[in-house]
Specification:
This protein is about 80% helix and about 0% strand. It has about 400 residues and is mainly α. It has one domain: Growth Hormone, Chain: A (Up-down Bundle), CATH 1.20.1250. A two-stranded parallel sheet has the order 1-2.
């Protein structure tokens, strides 16, 4: 695993190479995620609240390890080795779904998979941001997001073909093949960037970054996450609207198509009009998808429309939310900054998706998704206020 000359950044070659690593990884991951929510609820007998808990715990583990790996990458002055470890861990974990017998088994495996994602993400994002000029971070993350989501389109399509022929458990086993391809690209085509190791305690580093406008932005994004949910609820609702189980991977593919289409343009536009402003747009789109989930019923077509809208939200939010860090934080502290960012958001998301799932189970979808819409509108107002200041 070679390192670059520390005086020269590798530029967009690194961005594209990391994008293809994410492309193959997403083929692997999204092969299983398009069917996993229904599989866990119908085959493994989980409730909506249990599904929300599974996703929340998985993302919390993801974000905790983002914090730890971000700190370690700053301390050792290296990014690529942690990225490789994280991708390797996820590659091994996903096929274990083939051996799950209860929804608790699925919770453990899903959490292990997200631990791998957590280990790789903060150092990978730091490496991405260091590969280009600070002013071009939005564009770089947009390129990465587009390649990432292109894999997320192919994955569900493969699931749509494979599940009727070979079954879900075989699909889980086959997910290892593209994951292995991602490791090959990472090993031979991604260049590390030597960064001076930071000799400091974590809390001193946290004090350096967790202040000012960065702190205010984290508060706004945390409030948003307290009302958020992920693709799994979209897929469940699509099933309730009449879309057959074997076709649900296509709904997931629909989410990923609009996600991919929105990623690069939103990153470029964010560099021009302000990243906070683009995040406000994403929150408003999320509020729209929540209102649609609350009110629309009676036709499978609504499931497709909701998936399209939700994908636009994800494409904007996932691209731009990560790109705000470089404008607030010095390069040598970005691993720690991304780690803190991901941990705070992960804790909020665990609470948010668990609350939404509980409200859906006990009080019905109208109250659950009205709550989500309200939280996103409050967060959008707060973030817009920060942007104006």
């Amino acid at each position: 695993m070679s390192e670059s000359n520390p005086s020269k950044s590798p530029g967009y070659k690194n961005v594209v190479a990391l994008g293809f690593v994410s492309f193959f990884t997403d083929v692997s991951t999204e092969m299983i995620l398009g069917i996993l929510p229904i599989y866990v609820v119908t085959e493994l007998k989980a409730s909506k609240a249990a599904l929300g808990l599974m996703e929340g715990l998985a993302e919390l583990a993801n974000y905790v390890f983002r914090l730890l790996s971000g700190i370690v990458s700053d301390k050792i002055g290296k990014r690529k080795i942690l990225v490789f470890i994280g991708y390797s861990f996820s590659s091994v974990a996903k096929p274990l779904f083939a051996f799950a017998n209860t929804w608790l088994d699925a919770v453990v495996i899903r959490t292990l998979d997200r631990v791998g994602k957590g280990v790789r993400t903060a150092p990978r994002d730091a490496l991405l941001s260091q590969s280009v000029k600070k002013e071009e971070a939005g564009k770089a993350f947009g390129i990465h997001r587009t390649l990432d989501q292109s894999g997320a389109i192919i994955g569900p399509l493969l699931a749509f073909i494979i599940v009727p022929l070979l079954g879900a458990r075989t699909l889980f086993l086959l997910s290892f093949i593209p994951a292995a391809a991602a490791l090959v690209v990472l090993t031979f085509f991604v260049v590390d960037i030597a960064t001076p190791s930071v000799k400091r305690e974590f809390f001193k580093g946290a004090k350096k970054v967790f202040k000012g406008k960065f702190l205010l932005a984290i508060i706004a994004l945390s409030l948003f996450s307290l009302g958020s949910y992920n693709f799994s609820f979209i897929i469940l609702r699509a099933g309730e609207l009449g879309i057959a189980t074997f076709a649900l991977p296509l709904i997931y593919m629909t989410i990923n198509i609009t996600h991919a289409l929105a990623g690069y343009p939103s990153g470029v536009l964010a560099d021009k009009i302000g990243r906070e402003n683009m995040l406000v747009v994403s929150m408003l789109v999320f509020a729209l998808s929540s209102i649609m989930l609350s009110l629309l019923s009676g036709s499978w077509v609504y499931g497709v429309i909701i998936a399209l809208v939700f994908g636009v939200y994800q494409g904007i939010y996932d691209t731009v939310s990560r790109a705000i860090v470089p404008q607030y934080v010095a390069e040598e502290y970005r691993g720690t900054a991304y780690g803190i960012y991901h941990l705070v958001i992960g804790l909020s998301f665990l609470a948010g998706i668990s609350i939404t799932g509980y409200l859906w189970d006990i009080y019905g979808r109208c109250l659950a998704f009205t709550y989500s819409a309200a939280m996103s509108l409050i967060s959008a107002i707060l973030l817009a206020t920060i942007a104006r200041k």
